[in-house]
Specification:
By secondary structure, the protein is of the alpha/beta class. The protein folds into two domains: 7-126, Rossmann fold (3-Layer(aba) Sandwich), CATH 3.40.50.2300; 129-221, no CATH class. Helix content is 55%, strand content 10%. It is built from ten helices and five strands, in the order E-H-E-H-E-H-E-H-E-H-H-H-H-H-H. A five-stranded parallel β-sheet has the order 2-1-3-4-5.
């Protein structure tokens, strides 16, 4: 049985540079391409990549770093490698800081061996592995409620996975009260789950527009 290749989204407007990436990486990875940050946002709403390579200077006068927060908001646990020859040191530093940061920053001209090494590390150490590490760190902590917190996190991820399966092919707006009864949790919990799934790009915002979710949340608090 053939193992599915990890998917890499390459956000790069230069055709020659993209061909270098494609020639070097396509044997081991499935490659998607966007020439603009705005195009990349549309792509990740349809297919979630396992890793993103992001250039800074993009087509149409767009800048990759301007789209970094939005990409991370949609895909918080997908590792991002910035590859650019146009960033000052302080820009590189800023791109690697904060909650909506990139994981790595490499300069052009790119060393393909180094890029492959970083990709392997990112796929192994980042993404879902970050969640696992958080759980492990919590278990090692001395907090009395550590086990309870880990259990809650696992339950939440399991519930969200099932919600995603239930709603992925649905064209109707989900019934929050029905989901709450099904999973035996509060309506506020289901609303939070839907927000997180939409933010991570695992559900389309069209399934439950943010304004409608806010109305449901306000109703739950009254």
């Amino acid at each position: 049985m053939e193992t599915q290749k990890p998917t890499i989204l390459i956000i790069e407007d230069d055709d020659m540079q993209y061909e270098i990436y494609e020639d070097s990486l396509s044997s081991s990875y499935k490659i998607l391409r966007a020439k603009k940050g705005s195009e990349a946002i549309k792509i990740v709403k349809k297919e979630i990549p396992d890793l993103i390579i992001l250039d800074h200077i993009l087509e149409g006068g767009e800048y990759g770093l301007d789209y970094l927060p939005e990409i991370k908001e949609a895909l918080p646990f997908v590792p991002i490698i910035i590859v650019s020859g146009a960033l000052e040191v302080h820009q590189q530093f800023m791109a690697l800081q904060g909650p909506r940061r990139a994981h790595y920053c490499l300069t052009k001209p790119i060393d393909l061996r180094e890029l492959k090494r970083v990709i392997e590390i990112a796929l192994k150490e980042c993404g879902d592995q970050e969640i696992i590490k958080q759980f492990e760190a919590l278990e090692r902590s001395r907090r009395i409620d550590a086990q309870e917190l880990v259990s809650r996190s696992v339950d939440r991820l399991s519930r969200q996975t099932e919600i995603k399966k239930l709603l992925t092919n649905s064209k109707d707006c989900p019934n929050i009260s029905a989901l709450a009864r099904h999973f035996k949790v509060a309506r506020k919990t289901i609303i939070r789950d839907l927000r997180e799934l939409i933010r991570r790009g695992e559900l389309s915002p069209e399934i439950y527009p943010p304004s409608e979710l806010q109305k449901e949340e306000d109703a739950s608090e009254n």
